[in-house]
Design goal:
The protein is mainly α. The chain has one domain. The chain is built from 13 helices and no strands. The two termini are 25 Å apart.
Length: 319
């Protein structure tokens, strides 16, 4: 079996195994819950999640603009949706590479600048999520020590990243590879560390993650769970930080497990916590997939080739 295919199969089986283990323990509750899904809570969850993708597109458009790339909101949102849809089926977050190929195909940027745009987006995502988790902890009782580490370590990585940008942002080299690397660092520093960028991208990131939290809260209310906003916030934070580790495609399995654990630790019953976590990620992934498919139709069938290239780990024309 091809090595890439085996990696995909193993990661998909792992994701399926985690979900199956969680669901088998509450299968009867799950079937009963699905029968009683309430549109009064489901529709707001869908609305929040959909709005979040448009906001992500707006933020990505802003990032591209800071890198000298002019793009429309629909195009920027499509780029984000397609890459995230690809991440649902491709392990190790290789779906992010699709964006680079799209920008190259549209003659908007070279590969280094495309990578820079993704790095900036990921930096603000991780930083915002970790800070929100830090703010939520004081309002949640009985938080175990491993949760602190889960939040503090990403904050430390973000701090180290900023130090690297400050230290190497103006360094140059005669070596071709190092010159490209230093050029990317300079781009990222210029686009992310100005006062305007910090305030603008941080503000957008806060709103984006607020929509994600309210999506989960709507799902929790649908199951009649009495959970505080702080607990939901912490669950979403921990779930997404675990999801950021590329163990399974789209973080499927790891996200649900992390969210359920936080909800249980905060007093929610095992069955209810599992149902909330699985339903939450299911709703978000369905919206992502639908948005990704519509985006592919918007940009054209050639995007499928870009997704294939991302899985193969190469660019157009053997780049």
């Amino acid at each position: 079996m091809d090595r890439r295919v085996s990696i995909l199969v193993v990661s998909a089986v792992l994701a399926g195994g985690i979900i199956a283990f969680m669901l088998l323990r509450v299968w009867d509750d799950l079937l009963l819950a699905i029968e009683h899904w309430n549109p009064l809570f489901l529709l707001p969850a869908i609305a929040f999640s959909t709005a979040g993708w448009w906001l992500r597109g707006g933020r990505y458009r802003s990032i591209l603009g800071s890198l000298g790339i002019r793009a429309g909101l629909a195009f920027s949102t499509a780029c984000v949706l397609i890459s995230q849809t690809a991440n649902l089926i491709i392990p190790a977050r290789l779906g992010d590479l699709v964006r680079i190929f799209i920008l190259k195909h549209e003659n908007l940027s070279g590969y280094p600048t495309g990578i820079s745009s993704i790095v900036i987006e990921r930096f603000f995502d991780i930083l915002t999520v970790a800070i929100l988790g830090l703010l939520a902890i004081p309002f949640v009782l009985g938080v175990p020590s491993w949760v602190y580490y889960t939040i503090v370590v990403p904050l430390g990585i973000c701090g180290a990243f900023v130090l690297v940008l400050l230290a190497l942002g103006k360094v140059q080299s005669g070596n071709r590879i190092l010159a490209i690397l230093f050029s990317m660092i300079h781009e990222i520093r210029k686009a992310s560390l100005t006062l305007r960028a910090v305030l603008g991208l941080s503000g957008l990131s806060l709103v984006i993650w607020a929509t994600d939290v309210f999506t989960t809260l709507s799902i929790a209310l649908m199951f009649g769970a009495e959970i505080s906003l702080a607990v939901v916030l912490l669950a979403v934070v921990v779930g997404n930080l675990f999801k950021a580790v590329p163990i399974t495609p789209g973080g499927i399995g790891t996200y649900e497990a992390a969210v359920a654990v936080i909800l249980v630790l905060s007093g929610t019953g095992q069955a209810t916590a599992t149902l909330i976590a699985v339903s939450d990620h299911l709703v978000k992934n369905i919206i992502t997939a639908v948005g990704g498919i519509l985006s592919i139709r918007l940009l054209g069938g050639w995007v499928v080739d870009a997704i294939r290239d991302a899985f193969r780990g190469k660019g157009e024309a053997g780049a």
